[in-house]
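pls design
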C-alpha cells in the first residue's frame, strides 16, 4: 500500500485513514476485490494508493492547480486493487477525477451504512449495538491473539492467522465501534467520554502497527473499561 511520489506521497496517518475507509475492499463500487489475502502460509495485501488527480503534472487526471502536498492529501487519494488502479490510469479519459472522487465517498457512505452508525434514544439500545462487536473481537483475541502458546514457537502458522484476523476483522470492528460511540456521544457519561478517547488511541496504535507495520512499540493496550460502556443498573447483565 506504499506510495513513493515525493511530496505527493501520503503520510502515515493518511495511509491509515485510507485503510479504515476501505474496510479491506477496493473502493471501486463495481469491484468487490479483497485487499488483504492469505495464500497458503503467506499473508499479504494487494492494496494500491491511487491519486485521483495525478501526483505529477503530466499524469492521469493531472491538475496544475494542486500543490504537491495537496496531491498527496487524503482528499485526493483512493484505495484500489491493482486491476482497478491500472484501468483508471490507463483509460483516464473514461475515468475523470469527479467520477473517481465519487467512488471514494460512495464507498465511505456504504460502510457507514453497513456499520450502523446511527443515533439511539437510550443507553441500553446503544450498548446492544456495541456489545456484539466487542464480543467478536474478544473471542478472536482469545483464540488467536499473541498471548497464546504459539508465541513460543517461531514457526507457528498461528501468527499469520492472527495478523489476517486483525486486519480483516478486529480493525474494521474497532472502526465500527468508534463510529457508533461517536454517533452516540450524548448518551455517554463524563467518565465514559474519557474511555472513548482511550479506546481511540488504542485503535490508532493498532492500525499504526498492523497497517503501517510500525514496530516501534509503546502502543496503548485495550482499555478494559470499554466493555462496560453504557452499563446502567438494569442492563449490567449484558456485560
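designed seq:
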Amino acid at each position: 500500500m506504499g506510495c513513493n511520489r515525493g511530496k505527493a506521497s501520503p503520510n502515515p496517518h493518511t495511509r491509515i485513514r485510507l485503510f479504515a475507509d476501505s474496510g479491506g475492499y477496493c473502493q471501486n463500487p463495481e469491484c468487490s476485490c479483497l485487499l488483504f489475502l492469505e495464500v497458503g502460509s503467506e499473508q499479504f495485501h494487494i492494496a494500491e494508493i491511487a491519486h485521483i488527480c495525478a501526483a505529477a503534472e503530466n499524469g492521469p487526471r493531472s491538475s496544475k492547480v494542486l500543490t504537491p502536498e495537496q496531491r498527496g492529501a487524503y482528499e485526493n487519494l483512493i484505495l484500489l486493487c491493482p486491476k482497478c488502479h491500472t484501468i483508471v490510469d490507463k483509460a483516464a479519459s473514461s475515468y475523470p477525477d469527479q467520477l473517481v472522487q465519487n467512488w471514494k465517498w460512495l464507498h465511505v457512505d456504504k460502510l457507514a451504512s453497513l456499520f450502523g452508525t446511527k443515533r439511539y434514544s437510550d443507553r441500553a439500545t446503544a450498548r446492544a449495538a456495541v456489545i456484539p462487536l466487542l464480543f467478536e473481537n474478544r473471542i478472536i483475541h482469545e483464540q488467536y491473539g499473541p498471548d497464546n502458546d504459539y508465541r513460543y514457537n517461531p514457526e507457528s502458522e498461528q501468527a499469520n492467522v492472527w495478523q489476517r484476523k486483525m486486519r480483516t476483522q478486529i480493525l474494521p470492528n474497532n472502526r465500527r465501534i468508534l463510529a457508533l460511540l461517536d454517533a452516540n456521544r450524548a448518551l455517554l457519561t463524563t467518565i465514559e467520554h474519557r474511555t472513548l478517547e482511550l479506546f481511540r488511541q488504542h485503535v490508532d496504535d493498532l492500525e499504526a502497527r498492523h497497517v503501517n507495520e510500525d514496530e516501534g512499540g509503546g502502543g496503548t493496550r485495550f482499555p478494559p473499561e470499554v466493555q462496560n460502556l453504557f452499563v446502567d443498573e438494569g442492563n449490567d447483565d449484558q456485560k
